[in-house]
Amino acid sequence: MKNHRVLRNILIDLVCAGLALIIFALFHHVLPRQQQSLGIVISNPYKTDTEENGSGLAIPEKTMLIASAGISDSSRTAAKGGRQNNGGRGGGSNGKGGSALTEDGGESAAEAEDTTPISEKFAEKYTDTVVTTENSYSSPDISVTVTEETLGRTTYYLADIYVRDITCFQAALAGNTYGSGFRDSIEDMALLNNALVAVNGDYYGNTSEGVVIRNGVIYRANRTDCDVCVLYYDGSMEVMPGQSFSVEEAVQNGAWQAWTFGPALLDTDGSVLTAFASTSRIISANPRTAIGYYEPGHYCMVVVDGRGESAGITLPALSQLFYDLGCKAAYNLDGGNSSIMVWQSAVINNPSGGGRESSDALLITEVNDYE
What we know:
Layout: H1 2-30, E1 33-34, E2 40-42, E3 65-67, H2 73-81, H3 109-112, E4 131-132, E5 136-138, E6 142-151, E7 154-163, E8 169-173, E9 179-180, H4 186-192, E10 195-200, E11 211-214, E12 217-221, E13 227-232, E14 237-241, H5 247-253, E15 255-260, H6 280-283, E16 288-295, E17 298-304, H7 315-325, E18 329-332, E19 341-343, E20 346-347, E21 360-365
Parallel strand pairs: 2-3
Antiparallel strand pairs: 1-9, 2-12, 4-5, 5-6, 6-7, 7-17, 8-21, 10-19, 10-21, 11-12, 13-14, 13-15, 16-17, 16-18, 19-20
């Protein structure tokens, strides 16, 4: 009998210890945790005057590595005229889908464009004062028009965006903090940052892999097989296999934002992609959030409703949509219940499941006061 009591006590102790470990693991994973950041601030290589980083984000407390571009005039011209990549257009594969980008041996869509500064482009799109309508906004720095569109049984929301100053194209972090477990609604992040239009980002906080650059600060640059999208200070945008990303080149070329999710939605020459190295569940019709790039200073954000009256959209159909819109590059962000678009402080789409909070958002906001 005594042996039975001892055995029972041992089993109870083991069960309690196991439960304690499980509870610790759950809370350790779920509770918000500020993560260590690379803390590299990228200066704008296309500005000759000294200016502050326009991030609006809390800079990590650790000593920052101020990564001045420090490139010569000849290097500046080379960087501005065409990205110097490290040759890797071929991609690997992983659970999220890897990369379908292939090496074409020619000039990419980003490399073929002219180098006119975005401050001199699209002058007809801007207005001397702020002009707003139900679905549009214009000022000396920004022009945005938002429309609701249909494609068969699919409803999507399109924000057509022009910016004269790339720092108007910002990103927000939930809790204004880089780390895991921090989540906020896209609507609240938009309101806190005075955004005209905002969509959910790549939900960087849900993984430890990949590249996180927000408003000129490199927070993370871990190895990934996923495609990476980089927006540069000169207004150009490039989608590359994750294995091709280089911190040194990001600093030299002046990266302003970078996201890790994907996949790429157009090939390097701007053509439709019909094959994706991903699972059928990911490729099939779902709610989507994606960004498109026409040329420096001209972009679009697309949010597709799904899992309800709207049927969602497959990755091949989304690729075709961005091609039909005339984009040279396009990139898939977090989707499903995350897919949300906020226009002038209100959610305008019908998020699946009522939507969900996220760790980050993409937004367009004024950096100058035109009131």
